[in-house]
Design brief:
With about 210 residues, the protein is mainly alpha-helical. It has one domain. The protein has eight helices and no strands.
């Protein structure tokens, strides 16, 4: 997958409670352990969903699957449906401007809680599972190896780790700036998500008509 495709999807993955949680954990009491557990569990859950979606897509249409090459169009339609669902879900939540109450407790979170949170938010949050499944089925439809999803996974993890990397590099200056960034992301993440989902919908439609 090219950077044009990977970057928008990575932004969709982290826009919302995912990056907000990362910021909270980066300023928590045990921020190093919490951030590491959060990002590592995100790696596990995202990879799991992508691989499962890829195997299912490959079995039923991609890369010489059960339904043959003609099923590629069907897989592209599945990807399109996933993306449209993500767009609608994001739009419906556009007026949610306050972080959930449980986020306030992340400043005293434990690595165990951070691990569970990363696994669930990045792998099984509705828009995230749809996005990861889109990646898996997209690769299957093109007959590409599942390892081509590495760029998508790694870029998502890198963006997710940016708050803790900023604290590591900048110290107190980052701790002062992160709450402001958190508030901006909370107010505008839905606009960013909608824009990048729209871009990937256009790319998928091009594949359908190609």
């Amino acid at each position: 997958m090219s950077l044009v495709q990977v970057l928008p999807l990575a932004i969709v993955m982290i826009a919302g409670p995912q990056i907000l949680s990362s910021i909270f954990l980066a300023t928590s009491e045990k921020w190093r352990a919490n951030s590491t557990a959060y990002v590592f569990s995100a790696f596990l859950s995202i990879s799991l969903v992508v691989v499962v979606a890829y195997l299912l897509g490959n079995s039923f249409g991609g890369g010489g699957g059960l339904l043959g090459a003609s099923a590629k169009q069907l897989l592209y339609i599945v990807v399109l449906v996933f993306l449209l669902y993500a767009a609608v879900a994001t739009y419906r939540k556009r007026n949610v401007t306050k972080p959930p109450a449980w986020m306030g407790k992340l400043t005293t979170a434990t690595p165990r809680l951070s691990f569970r949170l990363g696994f669930l938010l990045l792998g099984f949050f509705p828009t995230n599972i749809v996005t990861s499944m889109s990646v898996g089925t997209y690769l299957a439809a093109n007959g590409d190896p599942v390892t081509d999803a590495a760029g998508f996974v790694l870029l998502t993890l890198f963006i997710l780790a940016l708050p803790s990397l900023a604290v590591l590099a900048l110290g107190e200056r980052a701790e002062t700036a992160l709450p402001e960034i958190r508030d901006w992301m909370n107010d505008n993440s839905w606009i960013v998500s909608e824009a990048v989902i729209a871009l990937f919908i256009v790319l998928t439609l091009q594949n359908l008509s190609g």
